[in-house]
Amino acid sequence: MSEITLQSRVKFHTGGAMPRLGFGSGGLKEQTGIDAVEHALKVGYLMVDTAQQYQNEQEVGTGIAKSGVPRESIYICTKWQPPPEGSHIRLTPEEVRDEARESVLRLDQSGSGKEYLDLMLIHHPRPDAEGRETFWAGLALAQKEGWVKDIGVSNFNVKHLEALPAPLPAVNQIELHPWCQQREIVDYCRKKGIALQAFCPLVRIRKDKFEDPVVVKIAKKHDRGVAHVLLRWSLQKGFVPIPKASSPARIESNKALYDFELDDEDMKELDGLDQGAAGRISGIDPATLPE
User: Fold this and answer.
1) Which residues are annotated as a binding site?
2) Is residue 114, in this structure, part of any structural domain at all?
3) 110 in a structural domain
4) Are 289 and 185 a contacting pair, CB within 8 Å?
5) Residue 284 pLDDT
């Protein structure tokens, strides 16, 4: 396999590219969020992932500004929030575009005037196919206007992706870790050239997962932590993991992934942990989401 480094990028079918490791910010609010994002960027992370749903875009933007890292050196991904389940709200593409623009303004807390997003995703396939088409048209409009570089989706299954009109998404962000490998969706995205971002790559530090004998054995073999094994597995599978952390020590530890490699036997054993839908920890199963 080719060498993976912190500077490695995955190339999109659009011609764009995204860092192979991101910093997740879900749940990090107020000063905690600001400090975590600032520290992550100062110690070398190149990408920050957030979402309108997290209600922390302003804190993420402040952390970015405080880091002192130039905007052009940072890859910012956020997610547009569709209406809630069962809602009868039907937005126009222009309204979606305008809501997306609000994210850009919240994230630019530096006053730099460099108001753009590297990537914006639709966070969820609700409420139905008609809604998805309209929402996708709104993000496509933002991309056409130039202040969103690439657009993609999150939690979309194969049917959702097949029904989506052009342009082809650059990214699908889904739950991915050894216990939840979503192989049908992964295979489809790979065939289509859709990059895969992995949320919950550390299974929310679930005790039962972190004490799994297979993972513990592999961690001991490489003299690494379980988190390192899980993130390295994700990288070697070709995914883009976006681990979340708040403490400086954990933020730094989560990027210490480039001086060891899992061998074929390690990868085979980790692949064997897949539990399908039963392995999910997020509660989001794309197979049961709105058609």
Assistant:
1) 123
2) yes
3) yes
4) no
5) 77
> What is the set of active-site residues?
54
| Domain tally, the chain | 1
Domain containing 104 equals 10-206+234-251
Q: Which residues are annotated as a binding site for substrate?
A: 123
Answer yes or no: is 286 within a domain: no
DSSP 187-223: HHHHHHT-EEEEESTTGGG-HHHHT-HHHHHHHHHHT
DSSP letter for each residue of 42-103: HTT--EEE--GGGT-HHHHHHHHHHH---GGG-EEEEEE-PPPTT------HHHHHHHHHHH
**Stretch 56-62: mean pLDDT:** 96
Is residue 224 a contact partner of residue 260, using CB atoms and an 8 Å limit? Answer: yes
pLDDT 10s digits, 137-148: 999 999 999 999
Three-state secondary-structure class, residue 279: helix
CATH of residue 34: 3.20.20.100
